[in-house]
């Protein structure tokens, strides 16, 4: 488990991370999302003692990173895949990690296999690796000590679609075996697919956090029906606000007017049954992580949409 409590990081008068609190739990993949410069990397660097927080604390499995006697056995870290020594081979980098952590030699070959780096690739210098190969090597280094916690900054960066699928399966399996995974990403769809819990940060502050289901379903319900006005009246008589959009919604099946409400789809279905209105569409209004992300971090986006 990773517990971040009230972490603030100031550089002079600039607050890069502002009172950030969240928990990444065992058995779950926690996605850490935010626009460029939001404070994700700084928060992750604070977690592993590379940056000193101005205030607040982070504990990993109940202890501060600096107090871990052999940190690689407790927490696997990938912050910058390009930071590996360019003159060493992939295998050498893993051997150094294996020796440093006091692990059996065979862990090196096991890890190369896990991340699908061939023996020929492993004997090449890292300076000649593609970004995707560096990410794989970085993930191998993070995993070599068989830690319970993984902290990965943009691990999908540079991976091709098959590589992204591979990484997703790897992290899913790791979390399903009880591990704690915290990963940051700009790839919103990737987070939407892989994460169980999501923490969104903008301008150094947490703007939203919760389970993916909670966040995505917070958007209410979208309905199409044979007589939408009757359904709208019935809902309003129960004190439920329901708005009708005559132009519909391009994401929905079919055309026509759409009714939106904040309540659960099950309740809307029940009300429709009671008033004898046939529903032609009933679904949770998944705004999609991208819409939610842009909305919640609107004040911290560099680029605004051009209408
Ligand atoms: N050593 C430093 N000195 C001054 N400012 C810094 C330092 N490190 C980070 N910052 C600033 O803190 C803010 C947060 O940076 P950070 O790298 O944590 O963002 P990020 O969310 O990881 O962004 P990205 O997605 O672009 O990597 C940025 O405005 C950055 O310029």
Explained architecture:
- With 307 residues, this protein is an alpha/beta fold.
- It has 2 domains: 2-207, P-loop containing nucleotide triphosphate hydrolases (Rossmann fold, 3-Layer(aba) Sandwich), CATH 3.40.50.300; 220-284, Alpha-Beta Plaits.
- The protein is 34% helix and 26% strand.
- Strands 5-6-7-3-8-9 form a 6-stranded mixed sheet, sandwiched between helices. A 4-stranded antiparallel sheet has the order 11-12-10-13, with helices on one face.
- Helix 2 (90-101) packs across helix 3 (106-114) and helix 2 runs parallel beside helix 5.
- The relative contact order is 0.14.
- The mean pLDDT is 88.
Morphology call: elongated
Number of strands: 13
Share of residues in strands: 25-35%
Please estimate the helix content: 25-40%
Q: Tell me which ligands are bound.
A: adenosine-5'-triphosphate
Structural class: alpha/beta
Low-confidence stretches: none
Strand order of the largest sheet: 5-6-7-3-8-9
Features:
single chain; 307 residues; alpha/beta; Rossmann fold; Alpha-Beta Plaits; 6-stranded mixed beta sheet; 4-stranded antiparallel beta sheet; elongated; binds adenosine-5'-triphosphate
């Amino acid at each position: 488990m990773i517990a971040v409590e009230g972490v603030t990081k100031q550089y002079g008068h600039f607050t890069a991370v502002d009172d950030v609190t969240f928990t990444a739990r065992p058995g779950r993949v926690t996605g850490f999302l935010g626009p460029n410069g939001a404070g994700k990397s700084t928060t992750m660097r604070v977690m592993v003692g590379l940056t000193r927080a101005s205030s607040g604390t982070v504990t990993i499995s109940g202890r501060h990173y600096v107090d871990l006697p052999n940190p690689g056995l407790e927490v696997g870290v990938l912050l910058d895949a390009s930071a590996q020594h360019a003159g060493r081979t992939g295998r050498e980098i893993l051997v150094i990690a294996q020796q440093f952590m006091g692990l059996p030699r065979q862990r090196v070959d096991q890890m190369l296999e896990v991340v699908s780096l061939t023996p020929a690739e492993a004997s090449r210098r890292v300076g000649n690796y593609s970004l995707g190969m560096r990410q794989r090597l970085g993930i191998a280094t993070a995993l070599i000590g068989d830690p319970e916690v993984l902290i990965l900054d943009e691990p999908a960066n540079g991976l091709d679609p098959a590589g992204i699928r591979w990484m997703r399966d790897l992290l899913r399996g790791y979390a399903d075996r009880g591990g704690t995974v915290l990963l940051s990403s700009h790839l919103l769809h990737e987070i939407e697919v892989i994460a169980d819990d999501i923490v969104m940060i903008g301008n150094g502050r947490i703007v939203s956090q919760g389970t993916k289901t909670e966040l995505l379903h917070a958007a209410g319900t979208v309905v199409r029906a044979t007589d939408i006005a009757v359904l709208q009246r019935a809902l309003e008589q129960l004190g439920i606000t329901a708005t009708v959009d005559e132009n519909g919604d391009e994401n929905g099946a079919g055309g026509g007017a759409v009714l939106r409400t904040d309540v659960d789809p099950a309740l809307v279905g029940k009300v429709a049954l009671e008033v004898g209105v046939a529903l032609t569409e009933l679904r949770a209004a998944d705004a999609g992580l991208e819409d939610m992300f842009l909305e919640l971090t609107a004040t911290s986006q560099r680029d605004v949409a051009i209408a």
